[in-house]
Amino acid sequence: ADVIKVEAPEGDSTRHTGPAAERGMSALFLGSNRGKRSIVLDLKNESGRSAMQSLIAGADVFMHSMRPQKLAAVGLEPASLMAGNPRLVYAALLGFSSGGPYSGRPAYDDIIQGMSGLASLMQRQTGEVRYLPTIAADKTCAHTAAHAILAALFARERTGRGALVEIPMFESMVAFNLVEHFYGLHFDPALAAPGYPRVLTPWRRPYPTSDGYICMVPYTDLHWKRLFEEVGRPDMAVDPKYAGIANRTKHIRELLEFAAGHIAKASTAHWIAVCERLEIPAAPVADLDALIDDPHLNETGFFTRIEDPAMGGIRFPGVPVSFDGVRPETRMAPRLGEHTREVLIEAGLSPTAIDELVKSRGVREGLVSAAKRL
């Protein structure tokens, strides 16, 4: 997709979040905006709103994350945009779906982590109410939005008409968490409390070894039988408490605690070798700074280095998926307003008209990058 990022004159706030080799091109912005084009429009200015309308008239998808009550003031309410472009897929990323008591409230990742049960899940496992140390709600809901937009585009190919698609963060994350954690509440009356025991036990964590940590997952009947035999407890393989996944789930805390006690007696390398022999999934724990040197990621060409004339070498994680064996190219994140003029020309505006928009301060132009991919 050709993704055009429409920014206010001051730019996206993430342009200044984290270290930067150039003002407005911070680490967080680079990681979130690779491959996009940037255009600067002042939607408080009538000429800026007019330029926005020209862009939307020829767009396949319009996506925003503004609160609904703010849309009409800048001419972005769905009815008028879809009337002007009936094939438009209008994707509204909201904190909460419309029609409920929370509709229109502001929402950030931390708020949604708390409201959707994530922080409570952390308490049930660790004893402390905490957020996950990643922007889990923002990123998960972005994937939900991508799926919903693709579904709407597919429907448009059959019907010829676009659609208004709402992607509410709150409902999306509640649905995400309750895939496994709705648990006994699927039944009416409930057959068990909510919460999947296997992932909530405090013993579900990387196991300490004698010299580090290991991620190890004996899961099937055969995995556990082999592990019991390996540690000299073949009797446990025939204990009714541990026969079958249903019984192991009931007694998962004591079972994982038992495994941890044995794993702590030998080195990580020892247990990696044992798990390879027993065909039990296992891996060492990697530090974030070690991922750049991971042999698999390097052999598959996952990381990309781009040489920028102003900032020097810039590295990006690659696109994880491939199409017919080819991974899409990773392109540089845009400087503020870098593509304003070229995007407006593509939208059908003449150079003279663009000059007038610039004079009116409805649109802004920025620096043009000459980054080269290596």
Key traits:
12 strands; 374 residues; 3-stranded mixed β-sheet; alpha/beta
Instruction: Estimate the helix proportion, in percent.
Output: 25-40%
User: What is the rounded Rg?
Assistant: 26 Å
Outline: elongated
Give the mean pLDDT. Answer: 95
Strand count, sense and barrel status of the largest sheet are: 3 strands, mixed
- How many H/I helical runs? 15
- Strand percentage lies at 5-15%
Spans where pLDDT lies below 50 across 5 or more residues:
370-374
Helix-and-strand structural type? alpha/beta
Strand order of the largest sheet: 1-2-11
Helices and strands, in order, run as EHEHEHEHHHEHHEEHHHHEHEEHHEE
First-last Cα distance: 22 Å
In total, the number of strands is: 12
Oligomeric state of the chains present here: single chain
Walk me through what this model shows:
The protein is an alpha/beta fold. Helix content is 39%, strand content 13%. The protein is built from 15 helices and twelve strands. A three-stranded mixed β-sheet has the order 1-2-11. Strands 3-4-5 form a three-stranded parallel β-sheet, sandwiched between helices. A hairpin with a 4-residue loop joins β6 and β7. α6 packs across α7. The relative contact order is 0.14. The model is unreliable at 370-374 (pLDDT under 50).
